[in-house]
Amino acid sequence: MLRVIGLLLLIPLFDIVLLVTVAIPFFGPLVTVALVVLTALVGMLLVRAEGRATLRSIQRKLATGEVPTDELVDGGLLIAAGAFFLTPGLVTDAVGLLLAIPFTRYPIRAATNRWVVRPYIDAKTGGFASGQVYVGGFPDEGQGGMGAGQGPDAGSGPSGGSGSGFSPDDATDVDFEDSDR
């Protein structure tokens, strides 16, 4: 988290250095300010149009009963693009443009889903949301924990201590309809 905050603080710093050392001497101060303001205005208009399209897509998916996961990530990326466009500078405007244009936003959305959203959901749900759950034992089995062959009754039971300790033959059916009365 600190790396992300540090990176977000370095982008405006790099932007200021670029403006002072390259843009102002090359274009002049008045043209540089006009360029920064113009890119911010055009970028905000682009974010507004893309936001409306994303909102329509969210509403369409909700109306059909689908979950708009990709559209919600797009909405978050568009909010970030708007923040980058509001920050004065040419580098932040370029980053905002990458987040606002749909064909460059799709790979960023895929990376965000893979490295941010999915690990967060897995951490919160214990892997049940993505299907990354442990079946037939404990997660730390065989790594020094109380796994197979290390408990107080190791070697006993129908499995002989060589597996997870669960035998389908020992399972019983529960009739929930009788217990509701």
Overview of this protein structure:
With 181 residues, the protein is an all-alpha fold. The chain is 65% helix and 0% strand. The protein has six helices and no strands. The protein has helices at 2-27, 29-63, 69-86, 90-100, 102-125, 176-179. It is elongated. The two termini are 53 Å apart. Mean pLDDT is 81; it is low at 145-162.
Kindly estimate the percentage of residues that lie in beta strands according to DSSP.
under 5%
Radius of gyration (Å): 27 Å
* Order of secondary-structure elements: HHHHHH
Can you tell me the overall shape?
elongated
Q: What is the residue-mean pLDDT, rounded to a whole number?
A: 81
By DSSP (H or I, 4+ residues per run), the number of helices equals: 6
Q: What composes the largest sheet?
A: none
How helix-rich are the residues, as a percent range?
A: 55-70%
Number of strands: 0
